[in-house]
C-alpha cells in the first residue's frame, strides 16, 4: 500500500446560486486513493504515456488491485482490473465483487430492511435511480485528471443485476468507449478512486481475465454510441456571501452577479459592494493576456413594464462593462453588452425569492485558446489561498478531518453520524477524497436517508445551487470546500448523452437508504483543486431543509 492510500475502514457493528474559481491548470498524475490489499507493483509495461502523465509520475499497476468497500453499511472486497481495450471502439473494466462472509445482515443495517439478505449491489453502484437506468456497476466512471475529462459507462441493459449473499462473489463488467490515454483514475461508487493502466486484450488474458466471458457480457450489456465520447470536467463555485457564482469549462468562465448586490435598487448605479464583485472578474480576465470575447448580459425581474425592464437591463450591462474597463485592460477583448429585460428568467414565479434570482448580470469570458491558456504563473483562482484563514464561523459541529466530526440529527427524527476524511489526493487539476460515514445511536434518524445528511439543500427556488431544475437525487452534493471566500462544489460534467444539458456530479449518487446504528458507508467525492495544502470541508445549514451543518478542518492534501 502506498502513502497515498487510505487504511482499511472500520467494520460496521453487526445487526440553488453564485461562484468564482477559474479552471485550474491541469497537470497529470497517477492517483491512488482507496483502501487496498495486494496487487500493487508496476507491471512489465514500459510506462509510456500518450500525453497526460508526466515522465516522473509512477505508472499505475498492470494487475488487479484489491479495494475494501463499504456499501450502505455492508463490507465488500472489490478487485479492479486494468482497463482493457476490448475492441477498436470499446474498453472494459472487470470488477470482482466479494461480500464478506461475516457481513452484517440487511435487517441489522437498514432501518427498513428487505425480506431477503441478498445485497442489491446494483442499487448502490448503478448510474441513477431512474427505472430505465442501466444496472450492474454502471455508476463507475473513468477520469483523466490531466486533461479534465470523464467517461461514463456505455451500458444500456437494465436487466443485468448484481446481488450478493454473505460470502458470495460475482464478476461484473463495465463497458466504456475508446480511451486515448494509457492511464485513468477509476471512480467506483462507495468503494474508492484508483489509478489503473489501459492494456490490450493480449495483456488482459495474461492477468487471468476470461476474454470469452467478457465478450459475452459486453454483448448483453449493450453499448450506447452517444456515451462513447468523454465529457469535460467543469467547476462550480459560489461566493460565501452568495453575491456571485461562477461556472468554468475548458472553453469559458461564466460568472453570474446578483444585481441586488451589484446595483442600487431599480437603477444602473453601481453599489458600494460592486467593485469587490467586479475586481474578481477583472482578475479572471487578466489571467488571459491574449484576450478573446467578453459577453455581458443584463436581466431583470418582471416588476414594472417591459420597456422599463429592457432599458434597465441594457444600462446595467453597460455599467458593468465600463467598470471592468477601469479595473483591467480590455484592449485585446471583443466586448458585447446585451439586455434581456424580463424575457429570460432564471426561474419562473413571482415570489420575492424568484424575482431576486432573476435580477442578475451574466458575464461570460471566452479566452483565445480556452481557459487553460493563462498568464504564466497564474493559478486556478483569481486570488488563490494556501490557508484557511478568514473562514466564516462554523454553523454546526467541527472537527479535524482525520479525527472526524460527530453530528446529531436536528429534529425529532434523531439520528447521528460521524464523518472522517483522512486526506485528499491532488491529481492533475482535481482533488480526490474518500470519506467514511458511520451511523451512531438512531442511525440516520427515522426515515431519513444517508443522502439527507450530505446533500445540497441550498437551491431554494432554483432546485439546486447550479440553477438546474431537478437537482441530484440521493447524492452527496453538499460536501463543499471553503477557499478564498468561495464555496467550492464537487466537480461535475454534462454527459455526452444528456438531452437537457443538465450536469452530473462527481460524487456518490445512490445514498438512498435509511440506516440503522453502526453502519459504515464509503463516500467518494472529486473537487476542483483549490491550491491549498490543507482543506476545510463544509456542509452548510440550509434555509429550506432541516439537514444539519458540519465542518471538517485541517484535511491534508497529498500529491499523487
Helix and strand arrangement:
Layout lengths: L31 E2 L31 E7 L2 E7 L2 E5 L2 E10 L6 H4 L9 E2 H5 L15 E4 L4 E4 L10 E2 L4 E8 L6 E6 L3 E9 H6 L4 H11 L9 E2 L2 E5 L4 E5 L4 E6 H4 L11 H13 L5 E8 L6 H22 L5 E7 L12 H7 L1 E8 L30 E3 L4 E4 L7 E5 L3 E4 L2 E10 L11 H4 L25 E4 L2 E3 L3 E2 L10 E2 L14 E9 L5 E6 L10 E10 L1
Parallel strand pairs: 4-12, 17-18, 20-31, 23-31
Antiparallel strand pairs: 1-12, 2-3, 3-5, 4-5, 5-10, 6-9, 7-8, 7-11, 8-13, 11-12, 14-15, 14-26, 15-16, 16-19, 17-19, 21-22, 22-24, 23-24, 24-29, 25-26, 25-30, 27-28, 30-31
Please provide a brief summary of the model.
This protein is of the alpha+beta class and 560 residues long. The chain has helices at residues 106-109, 121-125, 201-206, 211-221, 259-262, 274-286, 306-327, 352-358, 451-454; strands at 32-33, 65-71, 74-80, 83-87, 90-99, 119-120, 141-144, 149-152, 163-164, 169-176, 183-188, 192-200, 231-232, 235-239, 244-248, 253-258, 292-299, 333-339, 360-367, 398-400, 405-408, 416-420, 424-427, 430-439, 480-483, 486-488, 492-493, 504-505, 520-528, 534-539, 550-559.
Tell me about this structure:
The protein has 560 residues and is an alpha+beta fold. It folds into three domains: 32-232, no CATH class; 251-367, 60s Ribosomal Protein L30, Chain: A (2-Layer Sandwich), CATH 3.30.1330.60; 398-559, Immunoglobulin-like (Sandwich). Helices cover 14% and strands 30% of the residues. The protein is built from nine helices and 31 strands. The strands form four sheets. The protein has a 16-stranded mixed sheet that branches. Strands 1, 2, 3, 4, 5, 7, 8, 10, 11, 12 and 13 form an eleven-stranded mixed sheet that branches. Helix 6 (274-286) packs across helix 7 (306-327). It is globular, with a radius of gyration of 24 Å. The two termini are 13 Å apart.
Amino acid at each position: 500500500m502506498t502513502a497515498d492510500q487510505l487504511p482499511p475502514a472500520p467494520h460496521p457493528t453487526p445487526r440553488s446560486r453564485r461562484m468564482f474559481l477559474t479552471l485550474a491548470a491541469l497537470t497529470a498524475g497517477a492517483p491512488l486513493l482507496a483502501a487496498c490489499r495486494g496487487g500493487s507493483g508496476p507491471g512489465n509495461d514500459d510506462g509510456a504515456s500518450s500525453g497526460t502523465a508526466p515522465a516522473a509520475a509512477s505508472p499505475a499497476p498492470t494487475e488487479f488491485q484489491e479495494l475494501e468497500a463499504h456499501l450502505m453499511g455492508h463490507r465488500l472486497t472489490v478487485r479492479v482490473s486494468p482497463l482493457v481495450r476490448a475492441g477498436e471502439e470499446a474498453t472494459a473494466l472487470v470488477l470482482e465483487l466479494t461480500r464478506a462472509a461475516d457481513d452484517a445482515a440487511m435487517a441489522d443495517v437498514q432501518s427498513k430492511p428487505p425480506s431477503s439478505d441478498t445485497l442489491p449491489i446494483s442499487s448502490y453502484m448503478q448510474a441513477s435511480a431512474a427505472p430505465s437506468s442501466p444496472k450492474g456497476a454502471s455508476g463507475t466512471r473513468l477520469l483523466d485528471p490531466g486533461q479534465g475529462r470523464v467517461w461514463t459507462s456505455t451500458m444500456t441493459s437494465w436487466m443485468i443485476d448484481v446481488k450478493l449473499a454473505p460470502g458470495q462473489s460475482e464478476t461484473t463488467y463495465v463497458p466504456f468507449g475508446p480511451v486515448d490515454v494509457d492511464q485513468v483514475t477509476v471512480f467506483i461508487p462507495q468503494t474508492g478512486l484508483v489509478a489503473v493502466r489501459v492494456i490490450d486484450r493480449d495483456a488482459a488474458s495474461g492477468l487471468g481475465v476470461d476474454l470469452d466471458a467478457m465478450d459475452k457480457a459486453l454483448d448483453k450489456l449493450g453499448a450506447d454510441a452517444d456515451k462513447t465520447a468523454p465529457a469535460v470536467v467543469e467547476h462550480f463555485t459560489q461566493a460565501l456571501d452568495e453575491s456571485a457564482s461562477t461556472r468554468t469549462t475548458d472553453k469559458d468562465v461564466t460568472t453570474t452577479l446578483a444585481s441586488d448586490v451589484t446595483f442600487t435598487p431599480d437603477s444602473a448605479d453601481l453599489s458600494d459592494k460592486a467593485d469587490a464583485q467586479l475586481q474578481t472578474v477583472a482578475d479572471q480576465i487578466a489571467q488571459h493576456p491574449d484576450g478573446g470575447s467578453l459577453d455581458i448580459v443584463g436581466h431583470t425581474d418582471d416588476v414594472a413594464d417591459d420597456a422599463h425592464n429592457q432599458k434597465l437591463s441594457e444600462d446595467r450591462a453597460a455599467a458593468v462593462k465600463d467598470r471592468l474597463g477601469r479595473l483591467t485592460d480590455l484592449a485585446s477583448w471583443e466586448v458585447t453588452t446585451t439586455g434581456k429585460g424580463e424575457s429570460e428568467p432564471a426561474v419562473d414565479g413571482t415570489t420575492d425569492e424568484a424575482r431576486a434570482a432573476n435580477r442578475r448580470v451574466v458575464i461570460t469570458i471566452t479566452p483565445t485558446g480556452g481557459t487553460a491558456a493563462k498568464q504564466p504563473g497564474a493559478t486556478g483562482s483569481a486570488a488563490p489561498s494556501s490557508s484557511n484563514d478568514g473562514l466564516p464561523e462554523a454553523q454546526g459541529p467541527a472537527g479535524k478531518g482525520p479525527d472526524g466530526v460527530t453530528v446529531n440529527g436536528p429534529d425529532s427524527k434523531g439520528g447521528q453520524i460521524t464523518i472522517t476524511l483522512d486526506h485528499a489526493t491532488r491529481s492533475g487539476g482535481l482533488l480526490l477524497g474518500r470519506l467514511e460515514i458511520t451511523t451512531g445511536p438512531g442511525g440516520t434518524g427515522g426515515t431519513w436517508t444517508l443522502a439527507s445528511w450530505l446533500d445540497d439543500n441550498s437551491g431554494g427556488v432554483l432546485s439546486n445551487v447550479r440553477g438546474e431544475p431537478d437537482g441530484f437525487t440521493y447524492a452527496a452534493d453538499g460536501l463543499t470546500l471553503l477557499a478564498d471566500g468561495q464555496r467550492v462544489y464537487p466537480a461535475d460534467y454534462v454527459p455526452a448523452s444528456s438531452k437537457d444539458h443538465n450536469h452530473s456530479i462527481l460524487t456518490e449518487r445512490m445514498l438512498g437508504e435509511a440506516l440503522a446504528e453502526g453502519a459504515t458507508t464509503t463516500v467518494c467525492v472529486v473537487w476542483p483543486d483549490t491550491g491549498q495544502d490543507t482543506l476545510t470541508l463544509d456542509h452548510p445549514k440550509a434555509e429550506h431543509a432541516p439537514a444539519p451543518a458540519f465542518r471538517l478542518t485541517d484535511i491534508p492534501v497529498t500529491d499523487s
